[in-house]
Structure formats: structure tokens, C-alpha cells
Design goal:
By secondary structure, this protein is an alpha/beta fold. It has a single domain (6-264), classed as Metallo-dependent phosphatases (Purple Acid Phosphatase, chain A, domain 2). It has helices spanning 16-34, 54-62, 133-141, 158-168, 215-223; strands at 6-11, 13-14, 38-42, 67-69, 105-109, 115-122, 148-154, 174-178, 188-189, 195-197, 202-205, 236-245, 252-261. The strands form 2 sheets. Strands 1, 2, 3, 4, 11, 12 and 13 form a 7-stranded mixed sheet that branches. It has a 6-stranded mixed sheet with strand order 5-6-7-8-10-9, covered by helices on one side. Helix 3 (133-141) links the parallel strand 6 (115-122) and strand 7 (148-154). The longest helix is centred in the N-terminal third of the chain and has 19 residues, at 16-34. The radius of gyration is 17 Å and the shape is globular.
Length: 266
């Protein structure tokens, strides 16, 4: 296997303290085993399952994550609004309206100096009606015609994620879906070389309903009454995707889906 590929580890949505524990437990081993050049993680649920704080963002970055992406929960902790501009390695969806705090993409470099752009987008199907993610991607990509670009598409509908993959195939190196917290088994390299997975999954408590104590969503489903959701306790899991990209062609050449469970003895 060529050793000059750029290897990016993309970690699924980190949920609360259990997710941060899973990250710290497995990330060093994953970085060593896969000789990772860059670590990206969706962290929008890192603080108590909803939103981020400055302290928790720094905790995730200090654990070895290079870029934190996010989505529709990025503003759940109101105190994060005035500090997101101070954290350049934390990005929010680029298709928020103009004037919103934060940035929607970041350009970083691997240890060997290869530039990589991480772009964050949010879907609109069954979600807030933000600006069009397809047109926003077109706009941002004009500035990076010869750069590796990895997209976190934080969206609910599989069809919208797949449509974006076809729209951007050959123009970005990889599109990684987030938001549903359920890892899909459809990782693939698109016809023009873009790596794709509908959803990379979740890093958090495995005995849960997408990270939450099962009794909380059950109550809502059974009664239709509002209920407070709490992050579940117990064993944890880590979902991720390793993307191997040719730095010359900027095409994905290999994908490996990762699903680690604490109760499996991993």
C-alpha cells in the first residue's frame, strides 16, 4: 500500500462525556494503527449531548482532534456564540446566513505540508431552512480548485446526502455524512473519485437511543409529551471512517469504516 496517501480519520458525532471518554480511550491507538495525518470529528453534541462550550471544545482538540465540525446543535449552549470566533479549528455549517458567528470551512496542513480544506454544510430536508448547501458548496469550491477538500454534510435525509455526493463527485475528495448517529454500511468511492458514506455514526454511549437514555425518547414516543433528554451511561462506542486520498489526484483511493464497542473488549 502506498505510504504517500493522505490519511484522514473522521470521527462520528461525539455525544457528551461518554463520547469524550471513548475519544480519549481509542484515538491514540487509531492514529498509530492507521498512521493518520489529520483527525476530524463532529463535536456539536459534546457538551451534555447538546451543543459545545469553549472548555469542551478545547478538551476535544487537546485529545488529538485537528478540526471540530458541527451542525444544527452548534448554538444549543448560548455561551458558545461569543467564543466560536476565538476557536478557529471549530467550524459550523457554511450555509448559515451571512453575519452568523464562526466560519464554515478551514484550511489546514498535514504534518508533511499537504493542504486540506474541511468544509461543513447542513442539510435542509426535515431540518431548518438554511441557505442551499449545494450552491454554498459550489461557491466555496471556487477558491480551492487544486486542494484536497473533505466535506462534513450534517443532514437528516439519506437522499439529500447522496444527491450532494453526485453533485460534488470529482470536485471534492470525500463527503462524510453526520447527524443521524447511526452508522451506515454504504461507504464507497464515487465514479469520479469522491469517497462517500451516508452517515459515519456516533461516538458515545452504546446502550442508548442515539446517545440518549432510552427511557427519555421512549416517554416522548409513547405519550407525545415533552421530556428532558439525558445522555445515557454505561459502555461506549466509537464510529469513524478512515479516508485515504491521493495528494496528486486528490481522489479517494481507499475507505475503511470503523465501529468499536467497549463491551466487545476492544
Amino acid at each position: 500500500m502506498p505510504n504517500d496517501r493522505v490519511k484522514i480519520l473522521f470521527i462520528g458525532d461525539i455525544v457528551g462525556k461518554p463520547g469524550r471518554r471513548a475519544l480519549k480511550m481509542w484515538l491514540p491507538r487509531l492514529m498509530e494503527d492507521h498512521q493518520v495525518d489529520l483527525v476530524v470529528a463532529n463535536g456539536e453534541n459534546g457538551a451534555g449531548g447538546f451543543g459545545l462550550t469553549r472548555e469542551i471544545a478545547l478538551e476535544i482538540l487537546n485529545a488529538g482532534v485537528d478540526v471540530i465540525t458541527s451542525g444544527n446543535h452548534i448554538w444549543d449552549k448560548k455561551e458558545f456564540l461569543p467564543v466560536i470566533d476565538q476557536l478557529e479549528r471549530v467550524i459550523r455549517p457554511a450555509n448559515y446566513p451571512p453575519g452568523v458567528p464562526g466560519r464554515g470551512w478551514i484550511k489546514v496542513r498535514t504534518p508533511s505540508g499537504v493542504p486540506v480544506v474541511v468544509l461543513n454544510l447542513e442539510g435542509r430536508i426535515f431540518m431548518e431552512p438554511l441557505d442551499c448547501p449545494f450552491r454554498k458548496a459550489d461557491e466555496v469550491l471556487k477558491a480551492f480548485p487544486d486542494t484536497i477538500v473533505v466535506v462534513d454534510f450534517h443532514a437528516e435525509a439519506s437522499s439529500e446526502k447522496m444527491a450532494l455526493a453526485w453533485h460534488l463527485d470529482g470536485r471534492v475528495s470525500a463527503i462524510v455524512g453526520t447527524h443521524t448517529h447511526v452508522q451506515t454500511a454504504d461507504e464507497q468511492i464515487m465514479p469520479s473519485g469522491t469517497g462517500y458514506i451516508t452517515d459515519v455514526g456516533m461516538t458515545g454511549p452504546s446502550l442508548s437511543v442515539i446517545g440518549m437514555n432510552p427511557q427519555d425518547p421512549l416517554k416522548r414516543f409513547l405519550t407525545h409529551l415533552p421530556s428532558r433528554f439525558e445522555v445515557a451511561k454505561g459502555p461506549v462506542q466509537l464510529n469513524a471512517l478512515v479516508v485515504e486520498i491521493n495528494p496528486i489526484t486528490r481522489k479517494t483511493e481507499a475507505l475503511q469504516r470503523i465501529f468499536l464497542r467497549e463491551e466487545d473488549g476492544n
